[in-house]
Amino acid sequence: MLVQVNGEAMELPSGATIAALIEQLTLTGKRLAVEVNEDIVPRSQHPQFTLNEGDRVEVVHAIGGG
Amino acid sequence: MTETPEIQLPEDKPLEIAGKVYQSRLLVGTGKYHDLMETGHAIEASGAEIVTVAVRRTNLGQNPDEPNLLDVISPESYTILPNTAGCYTAKDAVRTCKLARELLDGHDLVKLEVLGEHKTLYPNMPETLIAAEELIKDGFKVMVYCSDDPLLAMRLEEMGCVAIMPLGAPIGSGLGIQNRYNIRLIVENAKVPVLVDAGVGTASDATIAMELGCDGVLMNTAIAQAKDPIRMANAMRLAIESGREAYLAGRMPKKLYASASSPIDGTFF
């Protein structure tokens, strides 16, 4: 299935979880926050939350800013 | 020889924001530094306890070992203040704050800034008011970047913002405090902390803000873009302390003409 991750199209196995996506991005254990279709998905739900075709996922972190 | 007792000045009441007490009245940003090491050193030299960060997309395919800002500026050592920089609508600002809260394990202190247009980065107050209302309703503690309008500042305080942060001059301009009278009026009216946010260029600007009675100053570019950011961070720390002391001491009145410091009595010529 095709999902949008940070604005880029990404092919994921059907039924993939957010935790699996984060692992595929080699970001496991990093301090980040995830939004699916503009709703926050709390970290505690990453292992269970399954993505669907066409989902828009945002993975964000903190960077320098004023 | 008798020992001179050390002069004890009455203690200042420390800065308190949303129920938390801070010894430093200087708040700093983490943008525009050469690298994370410089960021860390400058922040240490500034003595700041509250440090702003931005929330942005993670680079996909980045080196997994790349150091993260929050490894250098750890939430255990600093109060992290996520901003909504780059947001031009209330909706984007609220979304950013929710992501920040998730990112920081439920930490709900945010710096709300909704911008109006690219050239001046001047605050968009109608959208700021909408966002502030929604965020406060959702349990956020909102420190709000705003125009230096005393009435809007009062309105934001009434809504429940925990700190009012008028700009001294446009973000990153380094022009210094452009409307001292408005800043003073905002300070006089406010019961929550007032911090000048944006516009400081050098140490004297920060001192002026503090002499006007501000509770603190938030700055980024003035330190990060100095030739020696670490030294400037130290200068700003001293400037904030000096300005605060001068405010507490109460300055002499300004006069148009001279008034001799040495007595006229006893002159022999």
Automatic annotation (TrEMBL), chain A:
It comes from Marinobacter nauticus (Marinobacter hydrocarbonoclasticus). Pfam families: ThiS (PF02597). NCBIfam families: thiS. This is Sulfur carrier protein ThiS. InterPro entries: Beta-grasp_dom_sf (IPR012675), Mopterin_synth/thiamin_S_b (IPR016155), Thi_S (IPR010035), ThiS/MoaD-like (IPR003749). PANTHER family: SULFUR CARRIER PROTEIN THIS (PTHR34472:SF1). Gene3D superfamilies: 3.10.20.30.
From TrEMBL, chain B:
The active site is at K111. Gene3D superfamilies: Aldolase class I. Residues 16-263 form the Thiazole synthase ThiG domain. Pathway: Cofactor biosynthesis; thiamine diphosphate biosynthesis. 1-deoxy-D-xylulose 5-phosphate binds at G172, A198, G199, N220, T221. Belongs to the ThiG family. This is Thiazole synthase. GO terms for biological process: thiamine diphosphate biosynthetic process. One of its GO terms (molecular function) is thiazole synthase activity. Homotetramer. Forms heterodimers with either ThiH or ThiS. Its EC number is 2.8.1.10. It comes from Marinobacter nauticus (Marinobacter hydrocarbonoclasticus). The gene is thiG. InterPro entries: Aldolase_TIM, Thiazole_synthase_ThiG, ThiG. It is found in: Cytoplasm. One of its GO terms (cellular component) is cytoplasm. It is an enzyme of class 2 (transferase). Its main location: cytoplasm. CDD domains: ThiG.
